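Sharing in case it's useful to others searching the archive later.

Someone asked me privately for the predicted structure of Probable GTP-binding protein EngB, so I'm posting the question and my answer publicly. Question first, with the sequence:
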Amino acid sequence: MTRSTPSRPKASTNPGPKRRPRPATPAGQAGQPAQKAPLKAPKSPVKEAAKQAELDVGKLALNWAHSARFFTTAAQLHQLPASELPEVAFVGRSNAGKSTAINTLAQQRQLAYASKTPGRTQHINLFHLGAKAAPDQVWTDLPGYGYAAVERTAKLRWQEVMAEYLAWRRNLCAVVQMVDSRHGFTELDRTLLEFVAPRVRNGEVRLLVLLTKADKLNRKEQAESLRGAQAVLAELATDEADIGVALFSSLNKTGIGDVSNILHSWALPAEQAEALAAAALAAAEAAAEADATGAAGIDLDNPPPVHGEDGADQPM
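And my answer, the predicted structure tokens:
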């Protein structure tokens, strides 16, 4: 009986699914489990809430600054209207970018007139901010000073006007001075500081210096400009004084958010602004009534007699 030998299975010609080669295990880590990426710490709800609140405050301040609108203009100080609203004066050399900075803060192109020829604007322009029915602050755009093309007599006259305004304007609460960051405080800038220095030192008037055109400086130059300005302002520092300095650029919007927050913090609370508006409206109505009565020639306290048919006076 013959024993049959089983035939060997033929090798399959199908290579089967390809498997990707495993990455080589680094030396010294053989057999160690793969390391997972470290988990990020959960965000603090307190910090997130504070950050959101800061964003909301900044947005509120920008919206408030955008409410700026023209109120009135004056060629002389005695033409300025009396007001109980806090007034912020914007001052600076004619080529320091003052009007452009006001327009940038208000996010409006033509709120403050920016002449192509510096030194040509020679009026005091006032702007209201806040609700139309109850404004809470006034911005005052004072004429630029120190431009060479302006006659010497005009320069001296406007220096006198600004000196008197800064020294005596009763509702002036703050001064925003524009200083070209590339040049720092000039002699004229220092002269203007002297006009308002007594009121700054005793805390009656706040001072904020904006180093304009900061986009034209690199970081090192910006830091040097800040140090130079701080050295000048240190001469005015007292325990009562409220003095600040900031880099500012209308081109790349440097400092706009921070400056808007500062200006907004100087505005009247809504309740006081509404009370002032109501008082002003009542005074205007009383004045209009008095004018109408005077025009008619009638004295309500002593009315003229009425004559009867027989010529006798009859009481009204």
